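Researcher: Here's my situation. A collaborator sent me these components and asked whether they could plausibly form a single complex. I don't have experimental data yet, so a predicted model of the whole assembly would be a useful starting point for our discussion.
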Amino acid sequence: MEKLSGDVFRFSCPPSVKAFASVAGKKESEGPMGEYFDVIDEDAYLGEDTWEKAESRLQKTAVQKALQKAGLDASQIDFMFAGDLINQCTGSTYGIRDFQIPFFGIYGACSTMAEGLLLSAMSVNAGYAGYCLNSTSSHFSTAERQFRFPLSYGGQRTPTSQWTCTASGAVILSAEKSKVRICGGAAGTITDFGIKDANNMGAAMAPAAAATIKRYLDVTGTKPDDYDAIVTGDLGITGSGLLYDLLMREKTDIRNVHKDCGVMIFDGETQDTHAGGSGCGCSASVLCGYFLRKMEEGSMKNILFTATGALMSPMLLQQGESIPSIAHLVHISA
Amino acid sequence: MEKLSGDVFRFSCPPSVKAFASVAGKKESEGPMGEYFDVIDEDAYLGEDTWEKAESRLQKTAVQKALQKAGLDASQIDFMFAGDLINQCTGSTYGIRDFQIPFFGIYGACSTMAEGLLLSAMSVNAGYAGYCLNSTSSHFSTAERQFRFPLSYGGQRTPTSQWTCTASGAVILSAEKSKVRICGGAAGTITDFGIKDANNMGAAMAPAAAATIKRYLDVTGTKPDDYDAIVTGDLGITGSGLLYDLLMREKTDIRNVHKDCGVMIFDGETQDTHAGGSGCGCSASVLCGYFLRKMEEGSMKNILFTATGALMSPMLLQQGESIPSIAHLVHISA
C-alpha cells in the first residue's frame, strides 16, 4: 500500500469489486434510476409488520442478492462492515444477524457506503480478508419519523428538504482480480458550518464534501477532468450548488463531471421530492445500481465516489446544537 | 500479518499502545477502580447544560488527556475510530469534532472499545496509520433515559439491571515500539439467544462473549491459563455466571482468570448497582485505567480484552424483537 498521507490512500493491490446488488422501493423504481436496480419491492412493509423490520428486510435482500451474484455463501465472507441511519443501526444488525458473518458496525449516516467500502478495501488490500462485504440501507418511513416528524402528522416539507430513499446496496470486495477495482480513497474529517435546519441536510454536508474532494485532488495531484464522474452521496440540488460555490472559491471547478446520487434518483419535476433524495440507501443503491454497472460495462473508467453524511441528532438540535457532517471518498477504477 | 482465519488475526508487527487515558464520574470514582482513573469530574453535567453535551465533554477530555500523555498534537493522528451508545453517536461526533482528525464512526454498543482497538490495530499493522486514536464514552443519564425510562420517573431497577457508567477511555496506537502491544484479536459475530429484557443485558451478551472467546482460544491453540486475565466488557454478575456455564459446556473453564469490567467498576455491596456497571465507558475506562496501567507496570503480561455489546433497540423491543449481541476480542501483551 502506498500511503499518500495520513488520511489519503492509494492501494498497492487494488481490491476488486466481486459483486454488487441494489434494492429499491416503489417511488425509487419510478425515478430515472428505476431500470438499474436489481430488486424492486413495491410494498413499503416488504411483507413485515413494521417499517423498521421492513428496512432490515431491505438490507437482508441486498446482501442475499450480492452473495448470489458473487456465487458465494455467507460463510465464505471473512467479515463485513455495515450501518444505517436508524438508532442502534437496526436496519443492519437485525438485517444481517442470520448470515453469521463476523461484523464491524459502522456509523457515518449517509456516508456509510463510502466509509464501509474504504474500510473493506483497506482490509482486503492488507490481506485481512479474502472477501469483505459491506452494506447499508435507508427507508423513508423509518428515517422521517426518527429525524423529523411523525408521518401521520403530515407536516409540509420545505423547499430544501430531501426525500429519504427506501433503498439498499451491498458490495463484496475481493483480493481476486476483476474489472472494477478500488484503487484509493480518503477518510473524511468532521466539518461543521453551523447549520441547524434538519430540513437542509445538503447545506450541512456540502462543506464536508468540498473538503474531502479538494484534499484528494490535491494529494493525488489530479484534476476534476481526470475522472469520468465525481459523485457525491446525497447533497441534493441545494447542497450541490453550495458544493460548486465552495470549490470555486478554491479554484476547482467540478461542474462538468459532478453527479449527485440524491439528484439522480428522483425526477424533481414529477416526483415532488424537493431538493432530491437522501438516506444511506440513496448513494448505496445508485452506486450499486448505476455506477458500478456502467463501470463493469466499460462506459465509465474512473470515478470518485464521495458519500456524505449529516451526523445529525434530533436531540442535540433541540438542545441548540448544529449538524456536524462528514464525507468519505472512494476512488473506483475499471 | 499472519491471518489465522477469516475473523481471527495475529499481527506480524504488533501495534504498540502509545498512550491511554480514562475519565470517570463521581460514582465511578467511589468504586474499586477510583484510584486508577486519570481524570474525575464529580459534576454530572461536566459544566455543560445538558447530559448529552456532558457526555461529549467526557470523551473530549479523554482524547485530550491521551494526546497529552502521548506528547502528540491532534494533527499528528492519522485517523481515529470512535462511537458510543447515544443515538447518532453524539458523544463521539460532538466530542471530537474540534480535533479535526480524519474519523471513522463505529457502532458496537458496549463493544465499541474493542471494535475500535481492533480496527486501529489493523490500520497501524498494515501501515495505513502511524498514529491511530480510538475513544468511546457513556453517561448514566443519557443512556438510561434513551434505553429504559425517563430518569425523573424514578422506576425501580430489577436485580439483573446494570448501572450505565459515566466514563470514557481513549487509546493511541502507534507503529513505534513500546512495552504494551496489540498482538492479535478476533472480530465478533452477531449472536441472538432471544433475550427481550432491556434490564438483562448480561444474559443477552454472554453468548456472544462465549463464542468469541472460545473461537480465539481454539484458533490460536491457547488455554485460559495462558493469559493473566480474560477480560469481558460488562457482562456484570448475571452475565458472568452465564458465560461460565456456556463455556463449561464446551469444556472451557475461564473462572480462574476471568475479570469483568462491569463487576470490577462498582462495589456491589455498598453502591447499589445490582448486577454491576455497563456502557461503552465501563470497559473503556477500566481498560485505560486499570489493565493497561498494570501491563505497563509489568504486573500483567497477557490479556484478552473482550468487550461485549448489546445491539439493543428500544423500538425493536417494543415491536417484539429480541436483543442481538456481539463481542470483539483484542489480545494485548506486554
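Model: Some features of this prediction you could bring to your collaborator: The CA atoms of residues 13 and 253 of chain B lie 31 Å apart. Chain B touches chain A through 59 residues (CB under 8 Å).
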